Amino acid sequence: MDNVEKRALPEFIPQPIQDVLLEGNVCLSLQCWNAAGAMFRLALDLATKDLLPEQGEPAQKVRRSLGLRLDWMFDTGMLPPDLRSLAECLQQDGNDGAHDGSLSAEDAEDLYDFSFELLKRLYTEPERIRLATERRNIRRTARSSTSKPA
Question: Taking the model in full, what pTM does it have?
Fold first, then answer.
């Protein structure tokens, strides 16, 4: 198994989620497939909790349950629909690791891949777009201030 340092993490993810992913990577390197799956599921749990509004909908029952939360977030458009099968697989297979202890090496590797891709979509891509927009605005501001007639 490749060492932990070689496993990539998505950019711009919050530190608590990064810590959980690193722990999952350690579990993978030690061939602890169920523990790794549980950590990758926890990363999804933390990420989706971070996206919820502080007040109002959804109900507390939905806030506490990852499965219900995911359904609500997809149904309300808070999460892109193309991520639904990825998120559901991550949640369900992570549950298998945490509750049944039935994950294989391939399952755990899939969960790493799914976690990476989902978190990249939720955190990395939006931040990269924000930074590119910021750079564009800076360049346009600099260009317009230097091209004004004296």
Answer: 0.82
Other Cβ atoms less than 10 A from the Cβ of 35: the count is 20
The class that CATH gives domain 4-146 is mainly alpha
Q: What pLDDT, in 10s, does the model give residues 99-140?
A: 888 899 999 998 998 889 889 999 999 999 999 999 999 999
Give the percent of the chain with pLDDT over 70.
Answer: 94
What residue segments make up the domains of the chain, in order of their start? Answer: 4-146
Over the Cα atoms of the chain, what is R_g? 19
Closest CA to 111 of 50, 27, 48: 27
Left if phi > 0, otherwise alpha if psi is -120 to 50, otherwise beta: which for 118?
Answer: alpha
The residue to which tokens 């499965």 are assigned: 67
* Residues in Cβ contact with 85 at an 8 Å cutoff, skipping those fewer than 6 apart: none
